[in-house]
Write a structure and sequence with these properties.
Elements: H1 15-22, H2 34-38, H3 52-60, H4 64-68, H5 81-85, H6 92-101, H7 112-122, H8 130-147, E1 163-164, H9 169-173, H10 180-188, E2 193-194, H11 205-208, H12 212-229, E3 233-235, H13 240-256, E4 264-265, H14 267-276, E5 292-294, H15 302-308, H16 314-323, H17 352-358, H18 360-369, E6 373-376, H19 379-392, E7 399-402, H20 403-410, H21 418-434
Parallel strand pairs: 1-2, 1-3, 3-4, 5-6, 6-7
Helix pairs in contact: 10-20, 12-13, 14-16, 16-20
The chain binds iron/sulfur cluster (3 copies).
């Protein structure tokens, strides 16, 4: 029997949609398929009929609703390999994001929209109350002070602090002690740092769900907080998506008003700064006998470079050189690195098989490197590489560590004593009183 070709009639689009698509030269697309062959989501289970080239052709034909209603766009991690590979310069990754933006909010898959709403309404993705958050900060701070860092406390809403730091709700809610690594670094460096008492979330699920207005509001909140407390510099959130969303939100706010400018620094730059200034001392011997490799996160590398002209490739490698003796590269890396498969909110979305399919190249790369430890600097990458990929690709065993964990484990800590210790304890007492948090016996 002869196959009958489906006849597609180009759909007429709204003015808004035409204006939006007009920003991309879809007519330049030569249907070469480089985007699809470079996209790790191609061939994902359950989506065998979909690929990036098809999406581009559908959009060129005006089939926006069909694309928006497909879950294929939600498999896009925003890794940017397609855009990098397109010979005609079509920037496909933001187009995929815009298709997410156009989805009715009650049809956003999984918990992404709920998390973004929580963040906008309560100040964090998991709607952790202010009281629970502050009590956690007090108790955990005391635990670290007793264990290793006498006089340590978490400075909250500190006026005139040098740097602002954003906790990640996964750690505030459950992986409590994962916060100790950054805290120890701040302690060892004698940093004048702070966290907000409200609106502290590091992860931006508004970005992941294409909620541009949400991303703008989250950045606005950070700007207001810094100005109110006269904080000099913000360390961009560690989450690759969180920092990318923050950067994008700051750009939106700056476009509205030049007075919205605030100073920020990426975690790599901050860590290099305190190392180069000799503010922390490291003992590499704690990492002896293991080989380490580095995962280039797309949002701290390729995507940041493509949209903001900076990429953190050399910095993490330099930092690792100060901490470990045995480093091996994964290939390909840097601009050509593969995404782990968790970006764009894929970690909390209901697409485990597809996300693991996306991450298959990363699993292969790790195995080929022969490393014992994979070092990451994005909380989504970490969850994916540590928890999801080993479930699907169990043959090769490895550990996963944050870059700041590798540093914290090698720290030689000089504890506060005498007057310095008494001053820190007085400051802590004053702070918790001001925040109306009931003190435990340590104070
Ligand atoms: S950004 Fe990455 S995941 Fe998304 S379509 Fe492009 S290559 Fe695929
Ligand atoms: S890589 Fe570019 S030119 Fe080739 S099919 Fe994709 S969008 Fe079209
Ligand atoms: S999860 Fe990590 S590797 Fe994947 S897109 Fe995000 S930053 Fe890139």
């Amino acid at each position: 029997m002869q196959a009958v070709a489906e006849v597609i009639t180009p759909t007429s689009l709204s003015e808004d949609m035409r204006t939006y698509l007009g920003r991309f030269d879809l007519a330049a697309c030569v249907s070469c398929g480089s985007c699809a062959s470079g996209c790790p989501s191609s061939g994902a289970p359950g989506f065998e009929d979909w690929n990036t080239r098809k999406v581009l052709r559908m959009l060129a034909m005006g089939m926006v609703d069909e694309v928006v209603n497909s879950d294929f766009v939600w498999l896009c991690t925003g890794c940017g390999r397609c855009s990098q590979n397109c010979p005609m310069g079509v920037d496909i990754a933001p187009l995929m994001m815009h298709m997410k933006h156009l989805r009715d909010r009650d049809k956003v898959p999984g918990s992404l929209h709920k998390g973004a709403q929580n963040n906008l309404e309560s100040g964090n993705n998991l709607a952790i109350s202010r009281d629970d958050y502050l009590e956690g900060m007090l108790d955990l701070g005391n635990e670290l002070a007793e264990e290793e860092c006498p006089g340590f406390y978490v400075p909250v809403d500190k006026q005139d602090a040098e740097v602002l730091f954003f906790p990640n709700s996964k750690e505030v809610y459950g992986d409590f002690e994962d916060q100790f690594w950054w805290w120890k670094i701040f302690y060892a460096a004698r940093e004048n740092w702070t966290v907000p008492s409200e609106g502290w979330e590091a992860v931006d699920w508004a970005l992941f769900s294409g909620n541009y207005e949400g991303t703008r509001k989250l950045a606005r909140r950070k700007i207001d907080f810094m100005k109110r407390l006269n904080i000099k510099q913000m360390i961009m959130p560690d989450c690759g998506g969180g920092s990318y969303g923050c950067r994008t939100g700051l750009k939106y706010c700056l476009e509205e008003n030049s007075e919205n400018e605030v100073d920020f620094i990426y975690l790599y730059e901050y860590l290099m700064r305190i190392m180069k200034e000799g503010r922390i001392t490291l003992d590499k011997s704690v990492h002896a006998g293991k080989s380490f490799t580095w995962h280039d996160s797309c949002k701290h590398g390729r995507e940041l470079y493509r949209h903001y002209g900076v990429a953190f490739f050399d910095e993490p490698r330099w930092i690792l050189e100060q901490c470990v003796d045995d480093f091996v590269e994964m290939t390909p890396n840097r601009m050509n690195s593969y995404c782990c498969g968790a970006g764009g909110g894929m970690w909390p979305m209901p697409f485990d098989d597809q996300s693991a399919h996306h991450g298959r190249y990363k699993a292969e790369q790790i195995q080929r490197s022969g490393a014992d430890v994979v070092v990451v600097a994005c909380s989504n990458c970490r969850d994916q590489i540590m928890k999801r990929l080993p479930n699907y690709y169990p043959d090769y065993k490895y550990e996963v560590k944050y870059l700041w964990q590798v540093i914290a484990e090698a720290l030689v800590i000089d504890p506060l004593q005498g007057e310095e210790l008494r001053r820190a304890e007085d400051e802590a007492r004053e702070q918790w009183k001001r925040l109306e948090v009931e003190l435990t016996s340590e104070y």
